[in-house]
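User
New here, explain this?
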Amino acid sequence: MRTIPYWYFNRTQWAGLPDAAPGTLKKSELIRLKRVNADLSMQEVVEIYLPLARLIHCYITSNLKREMVLKKCFGANSKKIPYIISIAGGVSVGKSTTARILQVLLSRWPVYQYVELIATDGFLYPNSILTERGLIKEKGFPSSYDISRLVKFVSDLKSGVSQVQAPVYSHLIYDIVPSYHKTIRYPDILILEGLNVLQRDTNYSDNYHEIFISDFVDFSIYIDAPNELLKNWYTNRFLKFCRNSYINPSSFFHDYTKLSSREVMLIANNTWNEINYRNLRENILPTRKYANLIMTKTYNHAISLVRLKKEQN
């Protein structure tokens, strides 16, 4: 069995990487991001996410130089091709927060005027189709996604298509938003976050045979955490959704407000054990080895270890 070679960085080592960033987050930007993750601190941004943004900037710069050589040698077309970053990890690990922080930090470089963020949740099949196919209790599993549509989306971006559209998922209604799409036009960077972005299982590639999302990704990140922390973060988020649904009858979680706290906690625990943890164990965690960079979290979503793969894809 081949051992994957990594550079290992503890928190102090990672925070001490050379500084080449144009600035950090403003307080107002941090407050906005904290609405998504209350545990996020300015210290975490400075010590963890700024070095990550610098590293990605270095990879993008190297990639642009390579593209210039190829254009000079082969006369390749001059269409604007985005640099694609993927962020994977289990449910509730903080993929969305990481993606939003990177979006803000990378936008600080003048060369990246348009940094777009897309969640693969939008490529889930609608609940009606999942119910029809008997997959509603496997929502988030690879089979619950329209992988062909997602692969075509990233393929079109990498082919220089001028305008692509992505479906949108709403956590409020717990379903795809009908007749609504997000339109993307020539981004400099696209951040793609989701459970399935590192999947390489031929059973779910449909019409694309052995073409996967990861084939179009330039730099991939996996956010890791122990199961007990993931479960705790998930149940806390579940309870938060239930509390917030009191004031919004259209929320998927509104019916849970009629239950006792004990009953709601039981549902959250069962959902984690029977769906999310099983998906993590069977489908998500096995893809960790494909990531270029692995960030391991500890309590309060703080990063304790960073592993950077020496042999890049």
Summary: Strands lie at 6-10, 83-89, 115-119, 164-170, 175-184, 189-193, 219-224, 293-297, 303-309. DSSP finds eight helices and nine strands in the chain.
